[in-house]
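Per your request, structure below.
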């Protein structure tokens, strides 16, 4: 699945959001404090998911990270691997195009087919998520600007 969305934010604002999210999530998985400099290619961690069949521990690895340009993650899923990528193309100082890519490499052909069939509804949901991220970042920026004015 590939989704492209234009956003009225900067590439640094988008990557600050990704970094803040990882800084919030990683300590829960790694049981240690993480610094922004720790978020880079090669960082590996585990995350536990509750599934109907029981707990599943997913091994995750950041396979590419270049601040302001690209973030790619590889993660184990119950029957293979899932790859997630965010690529940023700057349009101007305050506008970017985000290309979100998600692929599943499954050992089960039925799972692979299921993901392909769900692709259209997943695209719509991902566009909504990306727009929600944009709105969150703009709201945060406006709040910070108002605080500076006071």
């Amino acid at each position: 699945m590939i989704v492209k969305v234009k956003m009225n934010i900067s590439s640094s604002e988008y990557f600050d959001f990704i970094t803040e999210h990882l800084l919030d999530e990683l300590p829960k998985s790694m049981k240690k404090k993480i610094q922004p400099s720790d978020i880079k290619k090669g960082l590996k961690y585990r995350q536990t998911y509750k599934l109907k069949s029981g707990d599943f521990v997913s091994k995750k690895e950041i396979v590419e990270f270049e601040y302001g340009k690209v973030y790619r993650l590889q993660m184990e899923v119950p029957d293979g691997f899932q790859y997630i990528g965010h690529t940023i193309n700057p349009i101007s100082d305050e506008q970017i195009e985000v290309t979100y890519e998600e692929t599943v490499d499954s050992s089960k052909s039925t799972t692979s087919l299921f993901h392909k069939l769900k692709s259209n509804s997943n695209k719509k949901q991902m566009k909504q998520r990306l727009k929600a991220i944009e709105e969150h970042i703009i709201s945060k920026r406006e709040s910070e600007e108002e605080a500076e004015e006071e």
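Residues 114 and 135 are 31 Å apart (CA to CA).

Regards,
D.
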